[in-house]
Amino acid sequence: MPFNNLLWILLLCLLLPGWAFDCKNEKKCKTSRVHGLKTSDCYRMDFKEFPKCLPNNIEVIELSYNRIRKIYQEDLLLYTYLQHLYLTDNLIVQLKNNTFAGLEYLETLDLSVNGLLKVPPSIFQLPSLKNLYLSQNKNINIAESIEEAKPIGSTSLTKLDISYISEDSPVEFPDFKELPLIAFLNISGNAFDYLSPKHFAGLCNLQILDNSNVTAQYENNCDCWIINRWLTERNVDFHTFLCPLFSQECSNEQMDPEDLKVFEDCTEKFKNIKQWHVLKKVALWLGGVLLVILILGIGFVYFGCNKNRKTKKQPIMTLRERVELMHVENKVENIYI
Ligand SMILES: *[C@@H]1O[C@H](CO)[C@@H](O)[C@H](O)[C@H]1NC(C)=O
Ligand SMILES: *[C@@H]1O[C@H](CO)[C@@H](O)[C@H](O)[C@H]1NC(C)=O
Ligand SMILES: *[C@@H]1O[C@H](CO)[C@@H](O)[C@H](O)[C@H]1NC(C)=O
């Protein structure tokens, strides 16, 4: 075999790891339907790399309690129908910005209990991502990642768990303005360098805030009281922040007009995104209906034509047959005469 051909084959093997990978050597995860979704259960199976031989149309992958260090975009592009990915308690330290890009249907991503230092900003741009768990990654700068992800166009993120992500030093509280759908936020066990009412103004859909064991500094003593009042007025389920001594001045302190504006913008954006989601659903539904009508229409036309052809063919055939029959009969008659 010429050397060039060998090179080509080598190159192909590098480009198509899924195809070239020998699946006989990979541990087999149990695959079944769970709640109607095609699920591969690879829980606690000592995987050191992302499995490459699961069914391509898999919708749920459970990979918690393994020893995976690295995940590449090529690994995930084998499974583009993925909706829920659980990677709790692995050894992931670093992820590339594009690792999860292309997972259009990903709704749940659980990266809790890993060693991540940074969350790829592009995670916040995944169009279907609803639930993101980042708990117990010791020192993530989540504020920076969200900042880098801006502008965030269409977001679905409603549940975010960033509990216990500040082990060595206090972290910055993220700016959630561009993620207005967030309804559940877990910040428990964190130390924040400082908290102010503006941090909560952009959380206009917040319903549950788990802030147990949170420590924070406040720029202004009244800020803590304003935050407690603001969250209480909005019926958020939370633990009252332990505030510095109450001073009489704080009882009349209100939210800054600038923060009120942020809240209004958030509400507006929330409405737009909700409408966009409804529109998308309606469009998909309409598209489906139109497709069915189109297929039915094509079917009718096709079968209609065939039927016509058959009914037209019938007399021609019989005519020819009749003529042929006549010939044969004539011949027979001729012979016998
Ligand atoms: C990460 O990817 C997003 C697009 O998905 C892009 O907007 C952003 O600038 C990238 N960030 C970095 C640090 O490359
Ligand atoms: C928030 O996170 C902590 C620690 O990870 C956990 O114990 C707690 O149950 C979470 N809160 C909620 C409401 O899920
Ligand atoms: C808060 O901290 C205490 C003591 O460190 C611990 O027992 C408790 O489980 C923590 N609560 C949460 C929700 O993390």
TrEMBL record:
TM stretches of this protein: 282-303
Keyword Transmembrane belongs to the record: yes
Topology in membrane: Single-pass membrane protein
Cell compartments where the protein resides: Cell membrane
Pfam families in the cross-refs: LRR_8
GO cellular component: a single term: plasma membrane
Signal peptide: 1-20
SUPFAM superfamilies from the UniProt entry: L domain-like
Biological processes, Gene Ontology terms: monoatomic ion transmembrane transport
Keywords: Cell membrane, Disulfide bond, Ion channel, Ion transport, Membrane, Signal, Transmembrane, Transmembrane helix, Transport
Name this polypeptide is given: Uncharacterized protein
Organismal lineage: Eukaryota, Metazoa, Ecdysozoa, Arthropoda, Hexapoda
